[in-house]
């Protein structure tokens, strides 16, 4: 198995704060590893060590089989990094930013220009290419950041919360960029606080908390940790919600919840319960606009693992 990057027992301290407490991460070549964790979990720190920007205090990290401390310069030639905070020069145009990066990477000016134009076109920025980056919207800035990390045709790309703060349409743009990178054989480490995002993009997910991996697996494996499935029903006529609640409660033997207006959900084991709910709804003549059987969300996974929701701080 060829690993595009890996960390083993990686430790990083900042004064009294242990940001990484012995973290193990690995991604096979051409896959997307989602590193999922709440604020302060250590995501950015892990990325910065892998990207040779921070020296670890213990353990090791390698990219393309090269140790990030001993072979930092060679590692830098393999990677692209999009930081959590924008890294482009505000006063330069989109085109100038990318050409500058190309030249820093030793491309000849003409070559850097060709590469920049290609990336700007790929990222839907061709029309804005001649405008200073400070005039770009948040979504355009993010795309320029992503393009900047790809100028050097990296084999491994680190994307640190690439969609934080983007509206859903712009988030979808970034998602399709990540998918096309992976399709081209690039290995991606994607950090995110969005469980849905890791689910949508990652081949494997490492859930981290307080600088440690607390779970690792495919999205489906992580969801199975919680066990069982969830039935969701939204009756066409909201007035019939109490009847629906009674039906799903009886069939499942569990207490249904109402996570939003007009819908009811209940955990079930096995899909026989689903068939039974459908039969009962039909018999009572209750029409539905939404009816589903799904695996738990990754937020429910995090809650199962830690006893906390992703937004909550651990009790001191
Ligand atoms: N340069 C630094 N100096 C001191 N403490 C730091 C530094 N960088 C990170 N930390 C601390 O290390 C811990 C991990 O931080 P890190 O930025 O890696 O988390 P994160 O998972 O990226 O969080 P977020 O989702 O908020 O970006 C936090 O407690 C943070 O306060
Ligand atoms: Mg971070």
From TrEMBL:
<keyword id="KW-0046">Antibiotic resistance</keyword>
<keyword id="KW-0813">Transport</keyword>
<dbReference type="InterPro" id="IPR003439">
    <property type="entry name" value="ABC_transporter-like_ATP-bd"/>
</dbReference>
<keyword id="KW-1278">Translocase</keyword>
<comment type="similarity">
    <text>Belongs to the ABC transporter superfamily. Drug exporter-1 (DrugE1) (TC 3.A.1.105) family.</text>
</comment>
<keyword id="KW-1003">Cell membrane</keyword>
<dbReference type="InterPro" id="IPR005894">
    <property type="entry name" value="DrrA"/>
</dbReference>
<dbReference type="GO" id="GO:0005524">
    <property type="term" value="F:ATP binding"/>
</dbReference>
<dbReference type="Pfam" id="PF13732">
    <property type="entry name" value="DrrA1-3_C"/>
</dbReference>
<dbReference type="InterPro" id="IPR003593">
    <property type="entry name" value="AAA+_ATPase"/>
</dbReference>
<dbReference type="GO" id="GO:0005886">
    <property type="term" value="C:plasma membrane"/>
</dbReference>
<dbReference type="InterPro" id="IPR027417">
    <property type="entry name" value="P-loop_NTPase"/>
</dbReference>
<dbReference type="GO" id="GO:0016887">
    <property type="term" value="F:ATP hydrolysis activity"/>
</dbReference>
<dbReference type="InterPro" id="IPR050763">
    <property type="entry name" value="ABC_transporter_ATP-binding"/>
</dbReference>
<feature type="domain" description="ABC transporter">
    <location>
        <begin position="5"/>
        <end position="235"/>
    </location>
</feature>
<dbReference type="InterPro" id="IPR017871">
    <property type="entry name" value="ABC_transporter-like_CS"/>
</dbReference>
<protein>
    <submittedName>
        <fullName>Daunorubicin resistance protein DrrA family ABC transporter ATP-binding protein</fullName>
    </submittedName>
</protein>
<dbReference type="GO" id="GO:0043215">
    <property type="term" value="P:daunorubicin transport"/>
</dbReference>
<keyword id="KW-0472">Membrane</keyword>
<dbReference type="GO" id="GO:0046677">
    <property type="term" value="P:response to antibiotic"/>
</dbReference>
<dbReference type="Pfam" id="PF00005">
    <property type="entry name" value="ABC_tran"/>
</dbReference>
<dbReference type="InterPro" id="IPR025302">
    <property type="entry name" value="DrrA1/2-like_C"/>
</dbReference>
<keyword id="KW-0547">Nucleotide-binding</keyword>
<keyword id="KW-0067">ATP-binding</keyword>
<dbReference type="GO" id="GO:1900753">
    <property type="term" value="P:doxorubicin transport"/>
</dbReference>
